[in-house]
Design goal:
Pfam families: Amidohydro_1. This protein is α/β, with parallel strands linked by helices. Strands 1, 2, 3, 4, 5, 6, 15, 16, 17 and 18 form a 10-stranded mixed beta sheet that branches. The radius of gyration is 21 Å and the shape is globular.
Length: 467
């Protein structure tokens, strides 16, 4: 039976028919052949068979034969600026990788950051991402309006966006990893973060831009920055994000410096709660998972990056069983050079099956799709408006072409999407506005981005070498 809302005859409508649909709603409702009606920026109707007859003001009809329609993918962890430092330090663990790359990252400026954001956003949008986020925490002195440049790139691309305004105040001289010239003061970081929230954060239902408070990690920020950052976020009513429990070395660092593991340390600084999500959470014991479940702290699972840096296998099946909100993340493209989220569906499923506890029952195709859609919306605090195809939610959806030889012999479309090769995106809509058509971006010049990102990567390399 179709679900539909009361019709407004004045609004423009887009009708998609003859497609398989995976709604990823609470019941995992699916239709072998169904329809979606988009009215303005909302989903008005969804169900089996043809769309309702006599719809008014239909401006476009799409024949979805051979396609699967899903919610748009939601990316929950990224570092856009790293697009211009891909392919470096390819055989390093996390700490050595950071030591190798921080001196280069400390030279970025506004033009580099904007161009790198274009590259990162383009890769994700072409791969079905409709909601992106960027954890940006490197703010060299005199580098310009980095936050504004990132938000501008997302707005131009047409992608729904969360900026996690990061910060670092623990440099090498304080026992941290970043170079001294790459960090902010405690007061400066807090003041600029607050200004960014007040200038850019939109809390409305269909908001295209939101801001979170996001000190970088336990080994690059002071305890006071974590504590005051949490107080700031809750005073402003925004979410909180940081890296946590990514590597064995981080756990050792926390125990040596703070006398406790990462989860206990985060709880002591106010960094567990339903308004918090952590990146990675690889090295979590039963007590840690229970604390996340009790507090509804979310996790951004980044399987490809975790593998690239040999960080380990996160206990995602155990987190889900305990009730921890879990989404997927690309992570920065200096540790996941592909830079897109669709492969994370497949890698999350495959890598978690390598865990010797759960093996082939660790995750299935529909659980992986849920991680990349509704799970991500939960983690970003937006599950009431995105992440599933339901009447009244924002019209963020993707038509995946499963009719090519790469997928056509796989009977189940969700299995084809998750287990198969990266499926072409015939159309992607954000807030009812199409941003991808036939695997090409509609609001960005991909060839120009290829040129500009290469030039900025070369400029950054020259500046770093001279320094």
């Amino acid at each position: 039976m179709a679900a539909s809302a009361a019709h407004d005859s004045a609004v423009e409508r887009i009708v998609i028919e003859n497609c398989a649909i995976a709604t990823v709603d609470a019941n995992d409702t699916e239709y072998a052949s169904g329809h979606v009606v988009v009215a303005g920026n909302k989903i008005e109707s969804i169900g089996a068979g043809k769309a309702p007859e006599n719809l008014e003001n239909v401006v476009r009809r799409i024949d979805g034969t051979g396609h699967l329609v899903t919610p748009g993918l939601v990316n929950t962890h990224h570092h856009f600026y790293q697009w211009i430092t891909r392919g470096l330090a390819t055989d390093h663990n996390l700490f050595n990788w950071l030591v190798a790359l921080y001196p280069t990252w400390a030279r970025i400026d506004e033009q580099m950051t904007y161009t790198a954001a274009q590259g990162s956003l383009a890769a994700m949008a072409k791969g079905g991402v409709t909601t992106a986020m960027d954890h940006h925490y490197v703010f060299p002195k005199g580098s310009g309006d980095l936050s504004g440049s990132i938000i501008r790139a997302a707005s131009e691309m047409g992608v729904r966006f969360t900026l996690a305004r990061g910060s670092m105040d623990r440099s090498e001289k304080d026992g941290g990893l970043p170079p001294d010239h790459a960090v902010e003061t405690l007061e400066g970081a807090l003041a600029d973060t607050e200004a960014t929230v007040k200038k850019h954060h939109d809390a409305s239902f269909d908001s295209m831009t939101q801001v979170a408070v996001a000190p970088c990690s336990p080994f690059s920020v002071s305890t006071e920055l974590l504590k005051q950052g949490a107080e700031l976020a809750r005073r402003l009513g925004v979410r909180m994000h940081t890296h946590g429990s990514e590597t064995v070395e981080e756990e050792q660092f926390c125990k040596e410096l703070f006398g406790m593991g990462p989860t206990d340390y985060f709880e002591s600084t106010g960094w567990l709660g339903e308004d918090v999500w952590m990146a990675h959470s690889v090295h979590m014991n039963d007590s840690d998972i229970a604390a996340f479940a009790r507090t509804k702290t979310g996790v951004a699972h980044c399987p490809s990056s975790n593998a690239r840096l040999a960080a380990g296998i996160a206990r995602v099946p155990d987190m889900l069983a305990a009730g921890v909100p879990v989404g997927l993340g690309v992570d920065g493209t200096a540790s996941n050079e592909s830079g897109e989220l669709h492969t994370e569906l497949r890698n999350a499923l495959l890598i978690n099956r390598l865990n010797t506890v759960h093996r082939e029952r660790a995750l299935n195709a529909r659980q992986a799709l849920r991680l990349g859609t509704y799970g991500g919306a939960q983690v970003l605090g937006r599950a009431d408006n995105i992440g599933s195809l339901e009447v009244g939610k924002c019209a963020d959806l993707v038509l995946w072409n499963l009719s090519t030889f790469l997928h056509s012999s796989i009977a189940d479309p969700v299995t084809a999407l998750v287990f198969g090769a990266a499926a072409p995106v015939t159309a992607s809509f954000v807030n009812g506005k199409q941003i991808v058509e036939n695997n090409r971006l509609l609001f960005a010049d991909e060839d120009a981005i290829a040129v500009s990102t290469r030039e900025e990567a070369q400029r950054l390399a020259r500046i770093s070498a001279q320094a």
